Amino acid sequence: MPIQTFEEIIKDIDAKKFQPVYFMYGEEGFFMDQITEKIAKEALPETERSFNQNIMYGGDVELADIVMAARRFPMMAEKQVIIVKEAQEVSGIAGEVNESQRAEKKENPLTLYLQNPVESTILVINYRKQKIDKRTRFYKALNSNAVVLESKKLYDKKLNAWIERYIKSKGYTIVDQAVQLLATYLGNDLEKLVNELNKLAVILPEKSAITATHIEENVGISKEYNVFELWGAIAAKNVTKAHEIAYFFSKNSKDHHIAVTIAVLFNSFVNLLRYHQLAEKRVPVNSITKQMGLNYYQGKDLQTAARNYPKSRAVRVISLLRHFDARSKGVMGENTNVGELTRELVATILYY
């Protein structure tokens, strides 16, 4: 059975196309939870769930209990649903064989089940670990007879693209700066992002274009300044504005933590370094921004920064940001006020 994406699995569930086994693993719990909840709601009519839907928790059951439950037949229904949450707590759930099984040359019980799963059972396993061994008989059995989803954390452009897709699925559009604000201030906590985006869907009229102002006013991000305005001021060498924003951040360090500031500035200067490298190869400006996947405003900021920060200086600033990152985490053994450190960082970049 081919490995499916989250969207493909959801589409099949909506079409009532259920498979005998769903095995989901990885560090991003959001996708697992969404699929599990969807199956729990869609696979059985509500009247059949009390007898034919069983939710198990890894810390409370043995592997034999899960396999035994999966082998049972439904009670006065066509299907039964067995959901195993926190499955990583179950010994052998990922095909491991214990010493006694190895001595007796016995197969893992779940591997055996996967070779011939019961058609009337929908077995859903949430295994919250990053990896499983793909060289085993267990994984081969999974690939043959189960829907397998590797649920990965989303980062950078993938996170931004996911935010845009989610908003579009709700009937809205969103501008690039608003996407950047959400990704920077809320990070890749998809559950938190969905909560905030759903809140916007309630507040705003249908088919609205979500802007940075909407995010600032409704998601708890300061309307005064944000880290992208700081980058814009630094890129333009607008010393007065950069110091003004840095001072504001220093007085509101909970909402504008230095870790976020350093991360955004680091990525911006790394992009600037790449910009210089492409410019040295005489790549046209429009082609540079297209190759780097930047929008119009990001491209304009980089063009401005390239005039003010030559390649050698961009390299020094990247090194400087690493140094301040270490200081902010206490690696240097100093007890520095993070607000003051933000002001020092901005001043050093401007005059370095």
UniProtKB/TrEMBL annotation:
Organism: Salinivirga cyanobacteriivorans
Cross-referenced SUPFAM superfamilies: P-loop containing nucleoside triphosphate hydrolases, post-AAA+ oligomerization domain-like
Keyword Kinase applies: no
Residue ranges annotated for the DNA polymerase III delta subunit-like C-terminal domain, each copy included: 224-331
Protein name according to UniProt: DNA polymerase III subunit delta
GO biological process per UniProt: DNA-templated DNA replication
TM spans (from-to): none
Family note: Belongs to the DNA polymerase HolA subunit family.
Pfam families per record: DNA_pol3_delta, DNA_pol3_delta_C
Enzyme Commission numbers on file: 2.7.7.7
